[in-house]
Specification:
The structure is a single chain. The protein has a domain at 1-190. Helices cover 53% and strands 12% of the residues. The protein has helices at 28-42, 63-74, 94-106, 114-124, 141-148, 211-217, 234-243, 255-379; strands spanning 2-6, 9-13, 48-53, 80-85, 128-131, 160-164, 170-174, 183-186, 190-192, 206-208. The strands form 3 sheets. Strands 3-4-6-7-8 form a 5-stranded mixed beta sheet, with helices on one face. A 3-stranded mixed beta sheet has the order 1-2-5, with helices on both faces. Helix 2 crosses helix 5 and helix 3 (94-106) crosses helix 4. The N and C termini lie far apart (155 Å).
Length: 380
C-alpha cells in the first residue's frame, strides 16, 4: 500500500502481493512508478510541482528520484519542480493522516479480500480514492538513472532539490531553509565527444547528455525499463490456500462467501500466470538493456575513433608545419651563407684592385715630380 496526496486528496495505491514487482512497492522503483501514475492522471496540466516527502533514502531521497524529476522537466510536463524533505523528528504528513483513519476502520471490520479492503478505504475518509496499479506501469527507474545520471555531491545532507526548464540536466541543491544558497550541479552523465580538427587538443573533451538523448531512452514505454509483476510461486500459492483461503467462511448458500472464494481463486490463478511469465520477461528486459548498452558503447567507440583520427590529422598537420619551418630555416641559413661568401669575394677583389692601382699612382707621381724639376731647371 502506498499513498500520494494531491491537493488534499489521498490516492491510496492498493496492490496485492503477487501483482507487485519482485522487490515490492517500498523501493525507489515502486514509489516512483506510483507517483508517475498519479501525476499522469491528476496533474491537470500544471506547470509547477512541489513534492513533500520524508527522509527515506531507499524510497524518496535517491538518484532514481532525481533522475525521474529531471526527466519530467526534459519531457516538458512541468516547468519547475521542487522536492522538499522534512526535518528529523517531523516525519508525519497528510498521507499518514489517511493511513491513521484507515487503520482505525480496519480494526473493527472483517477484511479477507482485496475488494473488501478497497471498500474499507472508501469508507475511511471522503477524501481517499483507492487505486489499483496497472501491472504494465511498473518501471525500473533505478536502471534508468544508471544510464543517464550521476549521484550529486551532498545528496544525503540536502533538504531541497529544484529543477527548472531553463537548466535541463541540472539540479539545484539547498542544504538548509529557503534562505540558504541554491547550488546548481550537473546531474546527467558526461560523454566523450570530439572537437573540430581546427581547434582540436589532446586534452580529453567531455559534454553532458543532451535532452534529446535522454528523451530517446523513453523510460515510460521502453521495454528495457519495464518491470513485470513477480507473481506467486507454487509454494506460496499452496501456503495462501492453506493458511488464508481456508479461513474464509464457506457458509451454506452464502453468495458473499462464494464470491470471496471465487475472487481468491481468480487472484491465485492470475498471480501464478505472472510467475510463469516472469523468467521470459526478465530475459526480454535483459536483452533490451544489452542493446541499449551496446548502442551506447558503439557511440562512445565511434567518438574515440573520431578523436584518434582527428588527433592523427592534427599531429600530421603539426609535423608538416614543423618540417616546413625547419626547411625554411635551413634555406634561410643557406642564403645567409651564400651572401657572406659573395661579400667576401667582393672585398677580396676590391683589395686586389687597390693593390694593382697603387704602383700606377707611384709612377704617375714620379713623372709629375720629374716634370716639375725640369721646369724649374729651365727657368733658372
Amino acid at each position: 500500500m502506498f499513498a500520494v496526496c494531491i491537493d488534499r486528496i489521498g490516492f491510496i495505491y492498493v496492490t496485492p502481493e503477487g501483482l507487485q514487482p519482485s522487490e515490492g512497492m517500498k523501493t525507489a522503483d515502486g514509489v516512483i512508478s506510483c507517483l508517475d501514475h498519479a501525476l499522469q492522471g491528476h496533474s491537470d496540466g500544471a506547470c509547477f510541482l512541489h513534492i513533500q516527502a520524508d527522509n527515506c533514502v531507499p524510497q524518496n531521497k535517491n538518484t532514481a528520484m532525481l533522475a525521474y524529476l529531471a526527466y519530467l522537466i526534459a519531457a516538458g510536463r512541468f516547468q519547475h519542480i521542487t522536492l522538499s524533505f522534512q526535518l528529523a523528528g517531523h516525519g508525519k504528513c497528510l498521507c499518514d493522516a489517511f493511513f491513521g483513519l484507515l487503520k482505525r476502520l480496519l480494526d473493527c471490520m472483517d477484511v479477507d479480500t482485496l475488494l473488501a479492503f478497497i471498500a474499507c478505504v472508501l469508507r475511511s475518509s471522503r477524501n481517499t480514492v483507492p487505486v489499483q496499479m496497472p501491472p504494465s506501469c511498473w518501471r525500473d527507474w533505478r536502471a534508468f538513472s544508471e544510464f543517464t545520471c550521476m549521484s550529486p555531491d551532498g545528496l544525503t545532507a540536502a533538504r531541497v532539490f529544484e529543477f527548472d526548464v531553463a537548466c535541463p540536466g541540472m539540479v539545484g541543491i539547498r542544504n538548509g531553509s529557503s534562505s540558504a544558497e541554491l547550488q546548481w550541479r550537473r546531474l546527467w552523465k558526461k560523454q566523450r565527444v570530439v572537437k573540430e580538427p581546427a581547434v582540436f587538443t589532446k586534452t580529453q573533451v567531455q559534454r553532458g547528455l543532451t535532452k534529446q538523448e535522454v528523451l530517446a531512452l523513453n523510460p515510460v514505454q521502453n521495454a528495457a525499463f519495464a518491470l513485470t509483476p513477480a507473481g506467486l510461486s507454487p509454494k506460496r500459492v499452496d501456503d495462501i490456500r492453506q493458511n488464508i483461503v481456508s479461513l474464509v467462511p464457506v457458509g451454506s448458500g452464502s453468495a458473499v462467501h462464494n464470491q470471496r472464494r471465487q475472487w481468491w481463486a481468480e487472484f491465485l490463478q492470475t498471480c501464478s500466470g505472472h510467475h510463469l511469465l516472469l523468467d521470459g520477461a526478465r530475459a526480454a528486459r535483459t536483452a533490451a538493456r544489452a542493446e541499449l548498452k551496446a548502442a551506447s558503447e558503439a557511440v562512445e567507440k565511434s567518438a574515440l575513433e573520431r578523436a584518434n583520427s582527428a588527433r592523427t590529422v592534427a599531429d600530421a598537420r603539426t609535423a608538416g608545419i614543423e618540417e616546413g619551418a625547419r626547411t625554411a630555416a635551413a634555406a634561410g641559413a643557406a642564403d645567409s651563407a651564400a651572401a657572406n661568401v659573395s661579400d667576401g669575394a667582393a672585398a677580396t677583389e676590391h683589395q686586389m684592385d687597390s693593390a694593382s692601382a697603387a704602383p700606377q699612382a707611384v709612377v704617375a707621381a714620379r713623372a709629375v715630380s720629374r716634370r716639375r724639376t725640369r721646369a724649374e731647371a729651365g727657368t733658372q
